Amino acid sequence: MELVHRPRRLRDGDTIRRICRETRLSADSLVYPIFVDETLSGKRPIESLPGQYQYGLDTVEEAVSECIAAGVRSCILFGIPAHKDALGSSAWDPDGVIQKAIRKIKAAFPDFYVITDVCMCEYTDHGHCGALCGHKVDNDATLELLSKVALSHAQAGADMVAPSDMMDGRIAAIRSTLDREGFAGIPIMAYSAKYASSFYGPFRSAAGSAPSFGDRKGYQMDPHNRKEAIKECALDVEEGADIIMVKPALSYLDIIRECSDAFDVPMAAYSVSGEYAMIKAAAAAGLIDEYRIMCESALSVFRAGANILITYYAKELAEAIQKGDIG
């Protein structure tokens, strides 16, 4: 048979397949989530996230050391405070759990890149992402609180802040505050298209952030909506976001692709707790090859257009990249 085009020529052997790969992964693009519990000494396994831990302030350096050993150079911090109240005031306390964790990490590992989650849900006694007016989150009142949180993180030494609350206008408010207070060089990674997803369950258990009433559908995005994600990303870019994010990752690969194509800023994706937990559960049941599924899932996110992946598998993926099993 006379065939001019034979795509299989470029698949015939491992070397040629690697040469022709369109999507390449780097450990530099991986961000590892770290949970820091102010009330904890040592570390505690997270039952809902097998293989993950909550760290006390006395062991947070251990978490970072493990990242560095695996080739991961950045983390995102989530705090579990000793005190919660209606406004989440411990979130901007200079001696709060995240502020202390930042200082400890930067003192021990000054070149390790520390991103901080900026939100109120872990710090409020009602578990919602801002100040309440009745049973609804007061958007505009929350902007001032988020700005105070972001500023306190920058003052403690954070390299980047990442607001995850989904309040309207919060990027502009935070950018204005940081610039005014001398932190114009601190980037903002916006949780721009954060959906009201069912994949967050294990995280809420790990971070103690489940709402005490209602849900977050009033401020997180409807999973039915695609165009709205582009609108949210456009607003965040206009307000000064340096990086935009889609969350969750695997069920929203189409959104990652569209937003990545539409905006000329780096695109992050968060492979969330439910995605991780499902892979772990299927692997424990002997139904899948966890290692291969981990690699293929991460690859799909980068192929969709992400430049940055926040994932609980960051350390394992970095080692897989180093071994040449993915990359």
Task: Note the main attributes of this structure.
single chain; EC 4.2.1.24; 38% helix; 327 residues; Aldolase_TIM; zinc ion binding; alpha/beta; two-stranded antiparallel sheet; Delta-aminolevulinic acid dehydratase
Structural Rg: 20 Å
Task: Count the beta strands.
Answer: 12
Q: Give the end-to-end Cα distance, rounded to a whole number of Å.
A: 35 Å
Instruction: Give the overall shape.
Output: globular
Helix content: 25-40%
The residue ranges in which pLDDT falls below 50 over 5 or more consecutive positions are none
Number of helices: 11
Largest sheet: 10 strands, mixed
What value does the average pLDDT take? 94
What is the H-and-E element order?
A: HEEEHEHEEEHEHEHHEHEHHEH
Strand content: 15-25%
Helical/strand content category: alpha/beta
Binding site for Zn(2+): 119, 121, 129
Cofactor: Zn(2+)
Catalytic activity: 2 5-aminolevulinate = porphobilinogen + 2 H2O + H(+)
Active site: 194 (schiff-base intermediate with substrate), 247 (schiff-base intermediate with substrate)
Q: Overview of this structure, please?
A:
With 327 residues, this protein is of the alpha/beta class. Helix content is 38%, strand content 17%. The two termini are 35 Å apart. Its EC number is 4.2.1.24. Pathway: Porphyrin-containing compound metabolism; protoporphyrin-IX biosynthesis; coproporphyrinogen-III from 5-aminolevulinate: step 1/4.
Entry summary:
Catalyzes an early step in the biosynthesis of tetrapyrroles. Binds two molecules of 5-aminolevulinate per subunit, each at a distinct site, and catalyzes their condensation to form porphobilinogen. It is built from eleven helices and twelve strands. Helix content is 38%, strand content 17%.
